[in-house]
Amino acid sequence: MARTRGPSRRDLVGGASLGVALLATGVKTAHAQASSDESFEQAERAILSGRTPKAAGVEIVMPQLSENGNSVDITVTVASPMTAEDHVRRVHILAEKNPFPRVATFHLTPRAGRAEVSTRMRLATTQEIVVIAETSRGELLRAQREMIVILGACVDGG
Questions:
Q1: What is the DSSP letter of 28?
Q2: To the nearest whole percent, how much of the chain has pLDDT over 90?
Q3: pLDDT digit string (tens) for 94-144?
Q4: How far apart, in Å, do the first and last CA atoms of the chain sit?
Q5: Residue 98 CA: distances (Å) to CA of 18, 24, 32, 46
Q6: Residue 74, Ramachandran bin (φ over 0: left; ψ between -120 and 50: alpha; else beta)
Q7: Where are any strands of DSSP class E within 13-137?
């Protein structure tokens, strides 16, 4: 009669480690999201800090229409020499109608070579996507673009 073996010690340790890592990530993400009751207007005001952005120098590349808001690609390019004296420090991506409007903030240094970031985001519905870039000289550059979403992905609470 053949004897069947249960999971090896390596399998148990690996599975436990993966479970702990996923649990820790889930708790951290849920905590970060739960603490944000910030509206789009509040998020934009906090980034601007009373400064007036220029409507120039930022290019947003994304599709005009998304059949599913679960994963929408976006690439942002900011015109900058990316030198020590003049470079983009931060790129903020905001979604006007998402439950949590701050989609992403990217921190850049001159070592990045060029001011270009790409990501995927979840969108609740058709809305304006706003990008604000902060330069080392204290300038703010702003661009926005409408994204049409057929089937939304976000719901209140996540």
A1: H
A2: 68
A3: 999 999 999 999 999 999 999 999 999 999 899 999 999 999 999 999 999
A4: 52
A5: 30, 25, 15, 17
A6: beta
A7: 58-61, 65-68, 72-78, 88-95, 102-107, 115-121, 127-135
